[in-house]
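Reader question, answered in our methods column.
A reader sent in the components of a multi-part assembly and asked whether the whole thing could be modeled at once rather than chain by chain. We filled in our standard form and ran it. Here is what they sent:
COMPLEX SIZE: two components
ENTRIES:
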Amino acid sequence: KQEVTQIPAALSVPEGENLVLNCSFTDSAIYNLQWFRQDPGKGLTSLLLIQSSQREQTSGRLNASLDKSSGRSTLYIAASQPGDSATYLCAVRGDRGSTLGRLYFGRGTQLTVWP
Amino acid sequence: NAGVTQTPKFQVLKTGQSMTLQCAQDMNHNSMYWYRQDPGMGLRLIYYSASEGTTDKGEVPNGYNVSRLNKREFSLRLESAAPSQTSVYFCASTGLAGGNEQFFGPGTRLTVL
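And here is the structure of the entire assembly that came back:
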């Protein structure tokens, strides 16, 4: 069964820092990997989607990388701002058998950026 | 486009009551999903529908039923609510285009007393 782990569980940084959130998964047979943001009491907002054949994706100050063979992804946030405070979730989509089409989620990294 | 919509936003039930959570998407997506989110447990898949007319169990299907009414709508029913079903429920959908990105609704906060 696919297991997704996110480290650290919580992170508190001053404004302006560059930071890295980590995600690892146990089964490399994935179709894609998606990073989400969740604000307290809200739904999930998709940030970046990386297909299994891709190495990275960028959107503004966000850059996500994928190393499928080692089962790892990182989300890099440049020049962090207080508005970046939220929980960041990593999810992988299976590509075969009973995992086809299903997303498996990590438990998230709760980020606080203080002024 | 409204994306993925869910009703109701909040609901309080007594043990043993039944209710249906509604979900609709206007993106012409084939696949739809129901998840629950609990503190310390993350998001867990309850049921999913890969295409209109099909439904499959996820990780935690016990106590729930689903109906894929048409391509747009996917409902989740609690026949006899239990306190263990107190949670936040999210509906999501995925299409074949756009790299199979998954989009989520705003959630339904359910409390079972």
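What stands out: DSSP finds no helices and eleven strands in chain B. The CA atoms of residues 58 and 102 of chain B lie 16 Å apart.
Send us your own complexes using the same form.
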